[in-house]
Amino acid sequence: MGQQRSPARPSGRPRVESLTQGRGVRQAVARRPGAVERQAGADATRDTQTLLVRRVKGADIPQVIALDERVTGLAKPDYWLDVFRRYGKQRLGERMFLIAEAANSQSPRQVLGFIVGEVRAWEFGSAPCGWVLALSVEPSARLRGAGRALFDALSLEFRKAGVSKMRTMVARDNQLHLLFFRGAGMMAGPYIQLEKDLD
Fold first, then answer.
1. Which of 30, 64, 143, 168 could be joined to 51 by an S-S link, Cβ 3.0–4.6 Å?
2. First to last CA, the chain
3. How confident is the model over 32-86, as pLDDT tens digits?
């Protein structure tokens, strides 16, 4: 088992340490140096926010379904069970379904966010690249590094799979995702999405 560290980041951004084993993420820990988090209803503070990013397990899926429903307002249990079957159990060298949880929690671990990605090749003439297919973070955990830790862990998995570019699609009116992905260094690519209503 080898330890790989990402380059140093500007103050305020989480540092992701990935401990890898075999072909997949075993865990990635994100620490936010100097961050102080106020606990609800208490004056106590913590100096470090610690997140664990790891491959999804079957036991995580009810929390993934509940988180997605809180964020989107839609319950999609069959969809997420199918995503887990395809991205959490098959072809794990090119498909990734990662979750973030609080690593220093005394209570049962809560899924704070998830990201789903896949290495795809030759659709639309594109050379192999990593696609971010889904990303969601618990609203109360936003701005604490969970999204960035998930994004960085997925980026690492894509690099290990041999690709050097990643892509995603974002709805034009989804300012939250647009700001997040642009802040992570993504920009408009060479393709234009076209669509037509089918009568």
1. 30
2. 55
3. 333 323 233 333 333 345 889 999 999 999 999 999 999 999 999 999 999 999 9
Q: At which residue do the structure tokens 């470090």 appear?
A: 48
Domain holding 142: CATH number? 3.40.630.30
Cβ atoms of 27 and 19 closer than 8 Å? yes
Which structural domain range is residue 111 located in?
50-183
Who's near 116: CB < 8 A, 6+ residues apart?
83, 87, 96, 97, 98, 132, 133, 134, 135
Exposed, middle or buried, 125 (CB in 10 Å: 0-12/13-18/19+)?
Answer: exposed
- Residue 49's Cβ-count burial label (10 Å; 0-12, 13-18, 19+) is buried
**Per-residue model confidence as pLDDT tens digits over 91-137:** 988 999 999 998 776 666 889 999 999 999 887 878 899 999 999 99
